[in-house]
Design goal:
The complex is a heterotrimer. Chain A is of the alpha/beta class. Chain A is built from 7 helices and 4 strands; from the N terminus they run H-H-E-H-E-H-E-H-E-H-H. Chain A is 32% helix and 9% strand. Chain A has a 4-stranded parallel beta sheet with strand order 1-2-3-4. In chain A, helix 4 links the parallel strand 2 (102-106) and strand 3 (129-133). In chain B, the strands form 3 sheets. In chain B, strands 1-4-7-6-5 form a 5-stranded mixed beta sheet. A two-stranded antiparallel sheet of chain B has the order 2-3. The longest helix of chain B is centred in the N-terminal third of the chain and has 15 residues, at 12-26. Chain C is an alpha+beta fold. Chain C is globular and about 70 Å long. The chains are: A alpha/beta, B alpha/beta, C alpha+beta.
Chain lengths: 198, 235, 138
């Protein structure tokens, strides 16, 4: 069955069947394959479009650095021209969490700073990912016994990739970003569309 | 001027001058402690590279600092902090400097540590914010970290710690909970992990060899909700 | 002269004595526990047991030997200070420049002795002595 979508306001119901012609050609998509029929019941995103969106999500990550301590300098080094992570498709220095896909927490998260880090994460729109960069944000690191340090940013936000090091090399962040891209490629599309976020 | 590489000798005259002037202005007899360093002969030599320390009785703290600041020209306030010296109370230390001049007569930078002691059970000291306004934040931090009350401070609220924080963290008896909660990996003896082996059996009987303990971790029956250690515990 | 790094396609050329991970040469380890005791992050976990070996010659006494069961380093806590490597009296720990071991699950950052042993293959040769250093002998 051929389904074409009309522009809003055109004659005929939106998404009408039986091939109503429209002035501007809209993307024509095929019917959903049988195996995923029940997943697609909740949303109208057809399969090839979702594939496009997943592709763009992986290869066009906007990175927002929560630079708290020394690891922030290594992050900046990996964003600059020598170990440039922009060639992986990730754009550094997103202008704020509201326009970012990935939050990189680099540095020691203190108990006083913890609510701010949580708030930054909550300001990020879906889909969002978090990379924990360096020992301090992985688990408290050398300050694991301090009276004022949160022992790992995963106590505040869900973390997708942990990059070890104190500080990690800039090339290690490249590896961490590649790992995140692999994780995005492998994640369940149905889960994403149902609004299941980690 | 000294040759490069040699530590600058403390010129005894300027220090004596300071002590004399303080005595003349306030009547306080300060004790001088000069930092010492290892000399080429292997012994300790006086006149190290650090600033000398003037020890002041606690009730004359503000008087001496006022004399240094107003009469002797030590107008640069660097920092104020404290040291927990256990039975001897808290030592409150203040670093002040007299900036040098380039010309017409070149005068080098002179700096001093001024130190006093307050007892542990009643740690109160007068605030120096009337002399150095910049000491306000230093005294707030010292107050929240050590619990020392600075009388006359305009706003002795906590500065760095989060609001719900209880206790004074830089006191030596403040226990770091993470070190008490996590079992020390070095507590095991070689060969101890086999429960039935001779090393573990020795551990359970109470070995002659003293069990090592990491620094800063109190005995389990002194602090914390854990059950007392019975030996041979699993790490 | 600065060059654009070609990592991740080409491995970067890392300077000598680069600190990436700590590799374990198990053959040399006598389970003295010095590294676990000196580690400031408490991130080295060692388990061992004692074995008794029968005497090989008549009249000789039996030998007791400590056998390593578990040697793990938790790289989420490690601060790469190198104290464990410096204190090991038997040269069982080495620096390796390996840095590509990011994970998605934090527990995977605790590397067991097998991985630590595999990393020995990445430990470079010690760098040549600088002829300008020392007392003039090259």
């Amino acid at each position: 069955m051929d389904v074409t979508f009309g522009r809003p306001g055109m004659d005929g119901p939106k998404g009408s069947i039986a091939g109503t012609s429209v002035d501007l050609p809209m993307p024509t998509v095929g019917p959903p394959s049988d195996g995923h029929a029940q997943h697609h019941a909740a949303t109208a995103t057809p399969d090839p479009l979702r594939f496009d969106l997943d592709w763009d999500r992986r290869w066009s990550l906007w990175v927002f650095n929560v630079g708290l301590a020394c690891c922030a300098v290594e992050f900046v080094a990996s964003a600059m021209s020598r170990e440039d992570f922009e060639r992986l498709g990730a754009t550094p220095f997103a202008p704020g969490p509201r326009r970012a896909d990935v939050m990189v927490v680099s540095g020691t998260v203190t108990d006083k700073m913890a609510p701010a880090v949580r708030r930054l994460y909550e300001q990020m729109p879906d889909p969002r990912y978090v990379i924990s960069f360096g020992s301090c944000s992985n688990s408290g690191g050398p300050y694991w016994d301090s009276y004022s340090v949160t022992k790992g940013v995963d106590q505040l936000v869900p973390v997708d990739v942990y990059v070890p090091g104190c500080p990690p090399r800039p090339e290690a962040l490249l590896h961490g970003l590649v790992k995140l891209q692999q994780k995005i490629a492998a994640e369940s599309r149905a889960g994403r569309d149902r609004g299941e976020t980690p | 001027m000294n040759a490069p590489g040699t530590p600058p000798a403390v010129d005894p005259d300027w220090l004596d001058h300071v002590v004399r002037e303080v005595r003349a202005t306030t009547g306080v007899e300060v004790c001088v402690e000069e930092e010492s360093f290892s000399g080429p002969g292997g012994g300790l030599e006086r006149g190290g590279v650090g600033p000398p320390t003037l020890d002041v009785p606690a009730d004359r703290w503000v008087d001496v600092i006022a004399a240094l600041a107003h009469d002797l020209g030590y107008r640069y306030f660097d920092w104020l902090s404290a040291v927990d010296e256990l039975d001897q109370g808290f030592a409150v230390v203040c670093h002040v400097a007299k900036l040098g001049t380039e010309s017409p007569e070149a005068q080098p930078l002179r700096h001093l540590l001024v130190r006093t002691r307050v007892p542990r059970e009643a740690p109160v000291l007068r605030s120096v914010t009337g002399i150095y306004a910049g000491a306000a934040w230093h005294e707030r931090e010292t107050h929240e970290m050590f619990g020392i009350d600075f009388a006359g401070h305009p706003n002795l609220a906590p500065l760095l710690l989060p609001e719900e924080f209880e206790g004074h963290p830089l006191r030596k008896d403040f226990v770091l909970a993470a070190r008490a909660a996590k079992p020390w990996p070095g507590a095991k003896e070689p060969g101890e992990s086999d429960e039935s082996g001779p090393a573990a059996r020795r551990g359970r009987r109470g070995s002659r060899r003293r069990r090592l303990a990491p620094p800063g971790v109190p005995a389990p029956d002194e602090w914390g909700p854990r059950p007392p250690d019975r030996g041979g515990d699993d790490g | 002269m600065a060059e654009v790094s070609r990592d991740p396609d080409v491995k970067p050329e890392l300077p000598a004595r680069s600190r990436g991970v700590i590799a374990l040469f198990e053959e040399n380890c006598t389970v003295c526990m010095l590294c676990a005791r000196e580690c400031p992050c408490w991130c080295i976990y060692i388990d061992s047991h004692q074995e008794t070996r029968q005497a090989e010659e008549p009249g000789a006494r039996e030998r007791r030997q400590v056998v390593l069961d578990r040697f793990a380093i938790d790289y989420s806590l490690c601060m790469y200070c190198g104290i464990c490597i410096e204190v090991c009296p038997f040269d069982a720990l080495f620096w390796s420049p390996e840095f590509e071991y990011a994970v998605t699950d934090l527990t995977e950052l605790t590397q067991e002795r097998q991985t630590l042993g595999e990393w020995m293959a990445t430990v470079p040769e010690p760098p040549r002595l600088d002829p300008a250093a020392g007392d003039g002998h090259a």
